[in-house]
Amino acid sequence: MFDDLTAPSRRSLLAMIGRAGGSLAMYQAMTSLGHAADSQFSGPPKLSGARPGASVLVLGAGIAGLLSAYELMKAGYKVQILEFQGRTGGRNWTLRGGDTVTEIGGATQTVGFAPGNYLNPGPWRLPYHHQTMLHYCDELGVELEPFVQLNNNAFIHSAKAFGGKPQRHRELVVDFNGHVSELMAKALNQGALDQQISKEDKEKLLVAMREWGVLDKSDRYTSSIHVADRRGYDRAPGGGVGGAPIASSVNGLSDVLDSKVWNLIGFYLEYVMQQTMFQPKGGMGRIGDAFVKKVGHLIRLNTRVTRITQDDKGVAAEWTDAKTGQTGTARADFMVCTIPASILAQIPIQVSAAKQAAIKALPYNSSVKIGLEMKSRFWEKKYHIYGGHSFTDQAINLISYPSMGFFSKGPAVLLGGYPFGLGAYMLSGMTPEKRIEEALRQGSVLHEEYRDEFLKGVSVAWSRQPWIMGCCAEWTEQTRAAHYQNLASIDGRIVLAGEHVSYYGCWQEGAATSAIDAVTRLHQRALAA
Amino acid sequence: MSLTAAPRLILLAAAVVAFAGGTRPAAVSAQDKPGNKAAVEPASAGRELYEQICQACHMPDAKGGMGAGTGVPALAGNAHLADKTFVIARVWHGYGGMPRFGALLSPEQVAAVTTYVRSHFNAYPDPVTVEEVAKVADGAPPQVACNCTH
């Protein structure tokens, strides 16, 4: 292979490095060549040459299970998927008019949304660097559209700031930057930092503070037309005789600090929260649906797995049909188990004590999503909010506005609540009717038209979903250190996959990268057997 | 020499970085989340805490419910709850799908809610004390790697 003296192509060079140094070396090389730094994804797994007749049993038809089945099927394996629910997709899920949701405790909601309207109860946005998910959308023909993330014109509300009156995101961010830069400039001008920085850097930093914070000639943050060019106007620029803008008035530092706007400045700077974001047209569930078009014939629905065993010849999953009570045993050479750890911890499974401990050390957090169908897009027409999120420190945490169908007439669906933590437990513990009532009560603080405009609502409390009993796995640094590798390792003929076996918890990218890693290792194991 | 210089250098550099542990994965807090910190606070009384938190899964009647596995365990009439250490540890550290509450609740709150569950839904009237919680909690509350308790 080294006989060719011409310079190798980038691809063959990477392949060569991969063979010589393993995947980690190849990954390093890719990073140094400007690829892959923003994603571990380097293309779909290239599995081929499965032994004739070799079989894999996949448990769970969410993103990890569907992706595993699809790639293993392409590689030549005989695949079967068992799914507990009567639907496919797992947390990749879109609720539309006519769909039903039944919770632990038996409460059943029927979605009353108009045609075309939907709620994504689980994942709802795809960051640009989630290249695995974007790849499969491309490969499977799932059409994507922009998901509006940061909207400077949306609201920030805190009961303890501005007398509880919601403020525009733009105004608070500009005011925060302005006040902080004024204080910094003051400290610099007083020589308070002369011991810390050089004279040259001090001059540059002063210029930066003046420009970043829009300070006046006295290095103070005060109301002016220049500041209004960022935070907005009392009268916006226009044409004709009344065209001149009138500046808005800046808020005082104490009020701005009360709003804790820095939480949201930081939020939008997070790697996973940055633009560009996408969503599938018609709902996130389109991705699961697209996989099902490829592997749907392999899936057995309504199938509750009751015991998982293995020996040196193969794997077995005992099951009970949740509808008919019929029982059976599915067998295969190998298994990809994507059952959430919250459920798997309750199913007897024949794996090492270390893996058993890892499965049982993985609590699931709680979240809620509440969809509210409104008669019209009043948030667009009256508030000029087109997509993005308004935040509140009430239990609902946010209101998110639809990223599609702008300016259209007729009913549209808001995300009326999306809490984690205590807010999620509080809303989950209510009846579905009470959750809607709370979402309307709390949302009315931001939009007074809420109750007049409200048509239909639906909520999904993740800790009351019988098939997962939580939202997603919650690791700590201690449990990562003690259990992560034990959870990810191949145990005999069984490998686990899902967001819980990833460092991208709660994201589909975690489920997808985990599945690719799992089937790649399983394939190697199968060929070596 | 059959290998051009450039790729050999890259190969070497890659191997050095790999063996030096240059890519040791760090704990990340990358999960999806709402992005704001709610001002809601846990209650102090046992009954209110149960209604705020526990009944999200264990249901208002503490009878739990059916799931894909064995389901959400009932707390009502649950003999395990006779053992204070057992119930404190479950609440503080979590177990299986049960979340850990050591980061959300104080020892006082854990004492209050476990006392309520043991006495109201079971016949174990002796209260759980803060000292008993502290003994099980033993050290700092668990720090969740993701930012999901906000």
From TrEMBL, chain A:
<dbReference type="GO" id="GO:0050361">
    <property type="term" value="F:tryptophan 2-monooxygenase activity"/>
</dbReference>
<comment type="similarity">
    <text>Belongs to the tryptophan 2-monooxygenase family.</text>
</comment>
<protein>
    <recommendedName>
        <fullName>Tryptophan 2-monooxygenase</fullName>
        <ecNumber>1.13.12.3</ecNumber>
    </recommendedName>
</protein>
<dbReference type="InterPro" id="IPR002937">
    <property type="entry name" value="Amino_oxidase"/>
</dbReference>
<feature type="domain" description="Amine oxidase">
    <location>
        <begin position="63"/>
        <end position="522"/>
    </location>
</feature>
<dbReference type="InterPro" id="IPR006311">
    <property type="entry name" value="TAT_signal"/>
</dbReference>
<dbReference type="Pfam" id="PF01593">
    <property type="entry name" value="Amino_oxidase"/>
</dbReference>
<dbReference type="InterPro" id="IPR036188">
    <property type="entry name" value="FAD/NAD-bd_sf"/>
</dbReference>
<dbReference type="GO" id="GO:0009851">
    <property type="term" value="P:auxin biosynthetic process"/>
</dbReference>
<comment type="pathway">
    <text>Plant hormone metabolism; auxin biosynthesis.</text>
</comment>
<keyword id="KW-0073">Auxin biosynthesis</keyword>
<dbReference type="InterPro" id="IPR050281">
    <property type="entry name" value="Flavin_monoamine_oxidase"/>
</dbReference>
Automatic annotation (TrEMBL), chain B:
<keyword id="KW-0732">Signal</keyword>
<keyword id="KW-0479">Metal-binding</keyword>
<keyword id="KW-0349">Heme</keyword>
<dbReference type="GO" id="GO:0020037">
    <property type="term" value="F:heme binding"/>
</dbReference>
<dbReference type="InterPro" id="IPR036909">
    <property type="entry name" value="Cyt_c-like_dom_sf"/>
</dbReference>
<keyword id="KW-0408">Iron</keyword>
<feature type="domain" description="Cytochrome c">
    <location>
        <begin position="41"/>
        <end position="121"/>
    </location>
</feature>
<protein>
    <submittedName>
        <fullName>Cytochrome c</fullName>
    </submittedName>
</protein>
<dbReference type="GO" id="GO:0009055">
    <property type="term" value="F:electron transfer activity"/>
</dbReference>
<dbReference type="GO" id="GO:0046872">
    <property type="term" value="F:metal ion binding"/>
</dbReference>
<feature type="signal peptide">
    <location>
        <begin position="1"/>
        <end position="20"/>
    </location>
</feature>
<dbReference type="InterPro" id="IPR009056">
    <property type="entry name" value="Cyt_c-like_dom"/>
</dbReference>
<dbReference type="Pfam" id="PF13442">
    <property type="entry name" value="Cytochrome_CBB3"/>
</dbReference>
<dbReference type="InterPro" id="IPR051459">
    <property type="entry name" value="Cytochrome_c-type_DH"/>
</dbReference>
